[in-house]
Amino acid sequence: MLRARPLATFKPLVSRTYATAASPHALVYLEHRGGVIEPGSLSALTAAEKLGGQVTGLVVGSPEEVQQVLPKAQKLKGLTNLLHASSPSYEPPLPETVSPLLEKVLQGSSFTHVVSAHSASAKSLLPRVAAKLDVPAVSDITSVEHDRSTDSTTFTRPIYAGNAIATVRASSDIAPKFFTVRSTAFSAAPTDGAEVEAKSIDPVEISGARSEHIKTELTKSDRPELGAASRVVSGGRALKDAKTFNETLEPLADVLGAAIGASRAAVDAGYADNSLQVGQTGKVVAPELYIAVGISGAIQHLAGMKDSKLIVAINKDPDAPIFQVADAGLVADLFEAVPELVKKLKDQQ
Amino acid sequence: MRPTAARLLNILVPVKRRVRLTIDYAVKIRVNPDQKGVDLNVKHSMNPFDEIAVEEAVRLREKLKDEVKSIKVVTIGPAKAAETLRTGLAMGADSAIHVETPESSPPPEPLGVAKALRALIERQKDGVDLVILGKQAIDDDAGQTGQMLAGLLDWPQATFASKLVVDPTKKEANITQEIDGGLQEVKCKLPLIVTTDLRLNEPRYASLPNIMKAKKKPIEKLSPSDLGIDLTPRLETIKITEPPKRQGGGKVESVDELIAKLKEAGVVGR
């Protein structure tokens, strides 16, 4: 659909010539919220560029949203093309309404890869579309390499809560190759420095929709977004209750300009909202600094933070597993150590 | 009052037998030296998200009583996977289907599993109104099967559910989903695919009498060829390796030393 018809007609002939194996062309699903492209999509764009071919962005949303986001998407460095589709039914983008659009865009197209962030929304959408096109998908990749001569792509991805790394290859018979990208493994693509032309495509309206959006409730916070923050202060069950959790961690997060995270135990006990959960089944973070306060360090938690640059642990129990990964571990009562740390950090500013 | 034409709910719950990840860091997964896989000679149990799925199905029956006609648990895997089905039956499922694969065959991919489930659903004489799956298996961490099944069947899907309210008369369900940054509520028509998040419920322990009763519940055995499906993976696993080791274990004696470390790393006091 993006290429001129004559070329598509001759495609089988072209692909037989080794020297001119089809060059990769990725479609990146660009997510946005509040008129801003999601950081995870910027990392997905970087991963798509690593394939070494063209990269087309796709922006989907309501007409107002698309109008707002498009100028920003056009400036994204790394994009060679930009497609957009708008319809009131794309706000928010439910998988049932967006997948027919993606199918139409991909059907008979030259796209070799379909890429997105490993976000909740894209995780819901991409496998659905992949199944419709009868291809497997690769989740949460941490590296990607494309071999043009064999038209195969090799990925690495963590399995068993990050306790093993699988290297998998999608060969030429898998077309297009779907994958979602672990955002902490790829830097964000620059948001300016380019000016790519935007091309509108018609939305695909489905009749008799069997899913309907009722409402969305976002947790409001003035702090940096957990997934993208360069510093994270995280609390566990030892924080006692929601009030103590906030009263202990907020001053420390404030003085460091950090986002607040939580272990599953703290979330389950109701100390923190579940959107703050760090771990295998929550968010995966890899900030410059991760401070684990009163967190023992179950492997499910470590899966979500062990790629942090500097890990600090404050825990009463000297045998807590968190100390096995911490760069600086302080065995102390957090109710004394954290206020002292806050005070001394403040004095230095 | 005329009898309602609406069919009673039939619920299908796919479950997976998986290596139990213990919270004890010392007994973590070990990668085999041949880099072909991990050491599976360890304790197995039902995938935790699948336990939540079974629990939710059983709770639906407790709430909707006779309006839930059947709860079937399904697994695809080697002979030993039958244990997982017994667990599901002991929790309250009525019957089970075991699609048995040879011990030596590689674990099927989500797309293969989704196709097998589609074939199973099409075989059910009474139909299926609701499929509840875990949001991900904690071994491959793919998190794709539910969405793929919904795509293949062209059914609505509600992923990462933390609340599920089913209205059997209207044949619809309201689902609260965990999304990045908060919650989202959707309303979907049945038949529907739901994938469970951790917060959907707290799975029960099967009591001894229920475990005994579960032994008498029927398990239908099928093979992939009975379903006309091929579970051969299409992605090639080249190797499985250990993740890079972290040089941890550095302890400090005081808050001052901690601050010195932070300074040394350049994260404070720049």
Question: Can you walk through the features of this model?
Answer:
Chain A: Keywords: Electron transport, FAD, Flavoprotein, Mitochondrion, Transit peptide, Transport. Chain A: Heterodimer of an alpha and a beta subunit. The complex is a heterodimer of chains A (349) and B (270). By secondary structure, chain A is an alpha/beta fold. Chain A folds into two domains: 25-200, HUPs (Rossmann fold, 3-Layer(aba) Sandwich); 231-348, Rossmann fold (3-Layer(aba) Sandwich), CATH 3.40.50. Chain A is built from ten helices and 18 strands. In chain A, the strands form four sheets. Chain A has a seven-stranded parallel sheet with strand order 7-11-6-1-4-5-12, sandwiched between helices. In chain A, helix 5 crosses helix 6 and helix 7 (242-256) runs parallel beside helix 10. Chain A is globular and about 65 Å long. The model of chain A is unreliable at 3-19 (pLDDT under 50). Chain B is an alpha/beta fold and 270 residues long. Chain B has one domain (5-235): HUPs (Rossmann fold). Helix content of chain B is 25%, strand content 29%. Chain B contains six helices and 13 strands. In chain B, the strands form two sheets. Chain B has a nine-stranded mixed sheet, sandwiched between helices. In chain B, strand 7 (157-167) and strand 8 (172-179) form a beta hairpin. In chain B, helix 2 crosses helix 5 and helix 3 packs across helix 4. The termini of chain B are far apart. At the A-B interface, helix 5, helix 6, strand 7, strand 9 and strand 10 of A face helix 3, helix 4, strand 7, strand 8 and strand 9 of B.
Structural class of chain A: alpha/beta
Distance between the termini of chain A: 58 Å
Summed over residues and divided by their number, the pLDDT of chain B gives a mean of 90
Largest sheet of chain B: 9 strands, mixed
Q: What's the CATH topology label of the largest domain in chain A?
A: Rossmann fold
Q: Can you count the helices of chain A? A: 10
